[in-house]
Every structure is written in structure tokens, then in C-alpha cells.
Write a structure and sequence with these properties.
Elements: E1 2-7, H1 11-17, H2 20-27, E2 32-37, E3 49-50, E4 60-61, H3 63-75, E5 82-92, H4 95-101, E6 106-111, H5 119-125, E7 128-131, H6 141-152, E8 185-186, E9 189-190, H7 200-218, H8 232-238
Parallel strand pairs: 1-2, 1-6, 5-6, 5-7
Antiparallel strand pairs: 3-4, 8-9
The chain binds S-adenosylmethionine.
Length: about 240
């Protein structure tokens, strides 16, 4: 997968893309990150934003440097890519959107700053608009990093263990079951004996029941979306 990132602050990405899973994905040649500094494509490099028409606080990102950057990329690549505008007004990013994006071969993430984009960027680019939550951050760089991290770890071959994303939270709209490692007892808290029993059938049942129980308790809203056939009312009564 090729990921193009359009930003006024490319240095912000160096650390995040250069560590852990995102770094490993690049080393395995499963992903290529390209950073584009929007300022470099502006007609006047000292002016990438301006005051809003109609008045109001702050500065708005001008359309021309963003369109110039996108068009420069389009000239050197195939047009079959997914453009994503990071904006608090976009659809809420989720694991299921991450899963869909992980099947794409080319993503372009466009990061806003200041008071955000001139509306013609939204109108003219025909991009998917994504928000990482109902709060306002200073720029689209951290949201872009969130999207990249969530997507790249789902690309086949990025994580060593093929199963490692299969039982994670939000898979089939359930939270993950509780996890334990050594030691078997810590500060008086014991690892449930079934997990040390070696009985794979019982361990699977325990994990599934605890995933359901945990989701019922912490995020009952998710259960409306699961394909689990369990009768949850019945399950709650048994607890
Ligand atoms: C200060 S925000 C602009 C907010 C805009 N004035 C509004 O009220 O909708 C600057 C930039 O940060 C990014 N941003 C802020 N919060 C975000 C969120 N929750 N999800 C995705 N991007 C966000 C966007 O790229 C946005 O253009």
C-alpha cells in the first residue's frame, strides 16, 4: 500500500512512522509512506492561509496549495486512490472503516490546520471525510497518524501472527476478552485457572463468554451490530 500524507508539518510524522509496527510494515515493503509539504506547492510559500470571508476568528487554509499538491501527485501516479480529508465534521472513524481502507492500494490523507480548509477543498476534491471523534484538535496530523496506525496493522503480513487482529476489540463488534501473562499470581490477583488448564475448548468458551460479558458491561451499544447469535438477555440473567 502507498500512503501519501499532505501536511504543513511533515516533521510531526517522522517519529511515529519510524517506530514499532509502522516501521516494520515499511521495512517489509508492505507499505510506503510519502510526505508532501503543502507549503512547497503554494504559489507564495509564505502564504498558505488567509482570513475568512465574512469575518470570524483565525485563518483558513487556502485551496490553491492543496489542489496544487494533489494535482502534482496525480501527475506522477495512477488515479485509483482514495482521498481522505481529516476533519471533525467527517464520518466517525471506526475499526470497520479501517478494515475497508486496509484493502486499498493507495491512500491520500490530507491534514488541515488553523481554522480548517477553504470549503472548495471539500467540494472540489470529492474526498472521504473522516473524524477521529467528537472533539477538535489543532491539526489533522494526529488524526492522520491514528488512521494510518489502525489501517496498516490490518494489512496482511504486517503483524507476525495472522490471528493477532482476529480477536481484538471491535472484531464482530465485541470487546476483547481479558488477557493475562506471567506471573500466575501478582499482588494477590490470580490468573483464572481455566487459562492455565491447557483445555483449548474450555479456554475458547471462557474467552467468548468474557468478551460478551465485558461488552455488555462497558459498551452495550456495540451488541446491536454483532453477528453473535447469543441471546444476551438470557446471558445477563445467568450472570
Ligand atoms: C482546529 S481544526 C478546525 C476545526 C473547524 N474550524 C471546525 O470547527 O470544524 C483544524 C484541523 O484539525 C483537524 N482536526 C481537528 N479535529 C479533528 C478530528 N476530531 N478528526 C479529524 N481531524 C480533525 C482537521 O484537519 C481540521 O481542518
Amino acid at each position: 500500500m502507498r500512503i501519501d500524507i499532505l501536511t504543513l508539518f511533515p516533521e510531526m510524522f517522522e517519529n511515529v512512522l519510524g517506530h514499532s509496527i509502522l516501521k516494520i510494515a515499511r521495512e517489509k515493503a508492505l507499505v510506503q509512506y510519502n510526505l508532501f509539504n503543502i507549503r512547497e506547492y503554494a504559489e507564495n510559500k509564505r502564504c498558505v492561509d488567509d482570513r475568512p470571508y465574512g469575518g470570524g476568528p483565525g485563518m483558513v487554509m487556502k485551496p490553491e496549495p492543496i489542489f496544487n499538491t494533489v494535482e502534482a501527485i496525480e501527475r506522477e501516479t495512477d488515479a485509483r486512490y482514495k482521498k481522505i480529508l481529516l476533519t471533525p465534521q467527517g464520518s466517525r472513524f471506526s475499526q470497520s472503516i479501517a478494515r475497508d481502507l486496509a484493502t486499498e492500494s493507495h491512500l491520500m490523507l490530507i491534514c488541515g490546520h488553523y481554522e480548517g480548509f477553504d470549503e472548495r477543498v471539500r467540494i472540489g476534491l470529492d474526498a472521504m471525510e473522516l473524524s477521529i471523534g467528537d472533539y477538535v484538535l489543532s491539526g489533522g496530523e494526529i488524526p492522520a497518524m491514528v488512521v494510518i496506525d489502525a489501517v496498516v496493522r490490518l494489512i496482511p503480513g504486517v503483524l507476525g501472527d495472522l490471528d493477532s487482529t482476529a480477536n481484538e476489540s471491535f472484531n464482530d463488534s465485541l470487546l476483547e476478552y481479558p488477557q493475562y501473562t506471567r506471573p500466575s499470581e501478582y499482588k494477590g490477583m490470580k490468573v483464572p485457572s481455566v487459562l492455565m488448564s491447557g483445555n483449548h475448548q474450555k479456554i475458547k468458551e471462557w474467552q467468548r463468554n468474557h468478551a460478551i460479558e465485558r461488552t455488555l458491561k462497558k459498551r452495550p451499544d456495540l451488541l446491536n451490530k454483532t453477528t453473535e447469535t447469543t441471546d444476551f438477555a438470557d446471558y445477563t440473567d445467568k450472570k
